[in-house]
Amino acid sequence: MGRTPPHPQVSQFDLQQVLEALVDPVRRSIVTRLVTSGEDLKCGAFDMPVSKSTATHHFKVLREAGLIRQYYVGTSRMNSLRRTEMDEAFPGLLDVLTRAVSAPS
Amino acid sequence: MGRTPPHPQVSQFDLQQVLEALVDPVRRSIVTRLVTSGEDLKCGAFDMPVSKSTATHHFKVLREAGLIRQYYVGTSRMNSLRRTEMDEAFPGLLDVLTRAVSAPS
After folding, report:
1. Which InterPro entries match (chains A, B) (predicted)?
2. CATH number, residue B64
3. Cβ-nearest to B96 among A20, A23, A96
4. Do residue A96 and residue B91 have CB atoms under 8 angstroms apart?
5. What is the residue range of A17's domain?
6. Mean pLDDT for each consecutive 10-residue tract of chain B (105 residues)?
7. What does the buried/exposed string (b/e) look like for B53-92 if buried means 16 or more CB atoms within 10 Å of the residue's CB?
8. Is B2 a member of any domain?
9. What is the pLDDT of residues A50-98, one digit of tens each?
10. A100 interface with B at CB cutoff 8 Å
């Protein structure tokens, strides 16, 4: 699959890079959506207040930080949360940030 | 104490603001130092690779996000981690970030 973009291994995960990815509200909303949906979603399934090229950039930043895995199904680029690997590298981080985001008041 | 700078209440804590404070490595190192020392520290006690005015700015960002409380003892500005309040607002966040920072390898 020459179209599958590169992904970092867990040993390459970097807290600074992960925080820089998650400090952006739009990118955090993508991760929260993947956490709450519990399934892989194509890029078009996210309702984002940004242009398509900006959205593509956001997915790329998340992928390069190790937060999501991207792969193709036909012409759709799918996004999968790398939950197990992120929990291995930074236990609790995803829980904390998605709980804080989705907590009612 | 007219010299005591303003501090947000817990109800005013904002995850976005807290993440923007903690995404900076120098500011994260200040918080980690306070976590590991377990006591209040004056600004001069932190070994930071930045100018004094930049350091003052970093402390201000942390204070305005609710991460630290600042007060004077004589001419020294002291810094206290607002651990209880931060844990109340965002349970686990400080644990996750300081554990990740201080973890061996």
Report:
1. ArsR-like_HTH, HTH_ArsR_DNA-bd_dom, WH-like_DNA-bd_sf, WH_DNA-bd_sf
2. 1.10.10.10
3. A96
4. yes
5. 10-97
6. 82 96 95 95 92 95 98 94 96 85 46
7. eebeebbebbbbbbbbbbeeeeeebbbebbbebbeebbeb
8. no
9. 999 999 999 999 999 999 999 999 999 999 999 999 999 999 999 988 8
10. yes
